[in-house]
Amino acid sequence: MSQFLQIMLSGLATGSIYALVAVGFTLIWQAAETVNFAQGEFVMLPAFFVLIGLNVLGYPLWISLLFGLVLSIVVLGVMFKKLVVEPILPSGGISLIIATIALGTFLKESVKEFYGAEAEPFPPMFPTDPINVFGAVISLQDILNLVISLGVVVLLTLFLNRTRTGRCMQATAQSPEVAEILGVNVKRMILYAFLINAALAALASFLITPVYLAKFSNGETLGLIAFIAAIVGGFNQIRGALAGGLLIGVLDNLTATYVTAEYRAALPLILLIVIILLRPQGLFGTSEGRSV
Amino acid sequence: MNGRIIFAMAASLLAATAGAQAQDVVKIGMVAELSGAGAPSGTNWRDGIKIAVEEINAEGGILGKQVDVTEYDTQTDPQTSRALVQKAIDEGAYAIWGTIYSGSTIVNMLVAQQNGVPQFVGSEAPAIVEKGNPYIFRTSSGAQKGLPSLTPYFTDTLGAKKVGVAWVNNEFGKGGHDVFVKEMENAGIEVIADVPSEQGQTDYAADVAKLKEANPDAIFVYMNQEESARFLIEANKQGLSMPLLGEVTLTEAKVIDLAGDAAEGALAHVGLTATATQIPGIAEFAEKFRSAYDRNPTHDAIKGYVGAWATKYVTEMVGEFDGEAFSEKMHGLCLSAEEYPKMLLDTCWDDRGEMSRPSFMVQVQNGEPVVIGTVPAN
How far is A140 from chain B, CA to nearest CA, in Å? Predict the structure, then answer.
């Protein structure tokens, strides 16, 4: 029972962080109709911004986290949109997808070059002491990671559904032309989507790096799993990305514990194939028809 | 016409200078994991070598020639390492220093063997010296020699009856795992949880949960540096209370740096450690390393240092740069620390290139690896 509780909790905690990254995929898809293949590197980079704050500028942890968040929003939100998306988007979605692949490699190699190839320790935001829940010793860090990630996704959903700005963003995602006719500032709404994505990536980075350690290559696995989570859940729905992330996190741990540890890395890919065959729009996604 | 003559003279002068320079140096190919998962090992190996080469060149080089080391980054990819060993040999390397990851060494050692080039490696998988390669030499004992030194700790000190083993599923991990399981079997200790993980794995929640559920008396952790650190962090997170023992990597400076408080109390059998400051040569090397790189040297750094100095000592014994003669001399050779101080400890190689020397038991105490015992050479 203790083991099951721990691996479920760990799976949900890790899955909720995958969900944060997967939601970013969804937001960028809805804002620019492109897949950001640098999303994994978007999660890797903020941790290094924090390390610069801590080790180079000598800020305390919380100031460094704030510094990392602001810098992430500027670099991964504003600059990504202005310097990569806006100039390339008129050339078509495929060009932009390739540009994001190149951007991912650029970010990864830049961190390797300027910060180093070795992993670096990253301080946890919360106490790491284990606590007792119904007789089972489990991790407080996992519980807080889960609560924060889920809380942020719920708040984001409420923001998109219950506020005027959020509804304008949804209208822009559904049809930019119609939204513009209705008086929505489409450019600003798209910018908001990029800023939110950058903030989510930064948060995911702050939560997962204490366990994964800060390393230039962290984005490779994270980006792939979150991409699969977004497809499994439904690429065009935030609740789908949430479900996909949690599902992969939990299944990964269950497989490693009760079935096989050797083939755990194959699980997300198997899940992806099954979903594409049985429900191409994802568990919670809506199908988007295309005509020739 | 004058222009042509001047050009020809300049070209001849340049060629002569280059030729003279080539005669004054001996080239060494340092092929190591400078990026990728093996970077913590590879960069330390490189930095240890740098210090050794600086000292060797200050003492007049090898047989009067300055040592010219070219660095080749394998990116922790075995196939890349194979191509780079070939490249180093094509560029005139007299010896190869590296690689550290056993999975790479197994793939690239044949290239050095076919070319008759001596190769000092930091790898510890048993299979490396079992392939009849006369040109391969370790800079630390293989797992099959190191791990038996841990058995008395499990049987006598801990009185363990059942143990768990968490290991990384690569050449290094498999070699150590197989030796450990056999050792436990011979000692009458039951392995009740056998948990493999992948190289570069980031999430150890399931692995630790499985070990915790099995509740062994102690856990043997046999992984590379980053994986060891992630395992320790997760073990701390889940409140794993039994002793964690490793071979070499678990108590390394880099692992302690990455895992922080989670490394506290971890134990390991270590072939070489910078904290064995009672050995004068090790203390001196550690001090030089710290002042050069502002960090503590790992055992990989000391291995690189020892490999470089062994190349000098043995080449000068042979009296010429002859790979075949070098290899013949190495087999069955012992270098005493008294006569060859830069070897740091009395060191011997057998007829397969396996190494023997005294070793240490180390425990992490207050964030530092502390020597808690010495193990004689076996």
Answer: 8
Q: In the sheet that B334-335 helps form, which strands lie side by side, from edge to edge?
A: B334-335, B347-349, B355-356
> Is A252 in Cβ contact with B237 (below 8 Å)?
no
The residues, any chain, with a CB within 8 Å of residue B121's CB and separated by 6 or more, are: B98, B99, B100, B105, B109, B128, B136, B137, B138, B139, B307
Is B363 inside any structural domain? no
Domain that holds residue B13: 8-141+279-357
In-domain check, residue A275: no
Nearest to B195 among A137, A221, A261 (CB): A261
Question: Rounded to two decimals, what is the model's pTM?
Answer: 0.80
Residues of B in contact with A257 (CB under 8 A): 206, 209-210
Range of the domain at A212: 17-217
Which chain B residue has its CA at the smallest distance from A123's CA? B260
Q: CB count, 10 Å around CB of A33?
A: 13
CATH assignment at residue B26: 3.40.50.2300
Q: Please check whether residue A23 lies inside any domain of the structure.
A: yes
pLDDT tens for B247-275 read: 888 998 889 999 999 999 999 988 878 87
Partner residue facing A211 (CB), from B213, B233, B260: B233
Q: What is the pLDDT of residues A76-114, one digit of tens each?
A: 999 999 999 889 888 877 888 999 999 999 999 999 888
In a domain, A239, yes or no: no
* Chain A residues closer than 8 Å to B223 by CB: none
Q: Which residues of B touch A2 (CB under 8 A)?
A: 212-213
Distance, in Å, from the CA atom of A69 to the CA atom of A59, rounded to the nearest integer, reads 14
Q: Do B202 and A119 touch (CB under 8 A)?
A: no
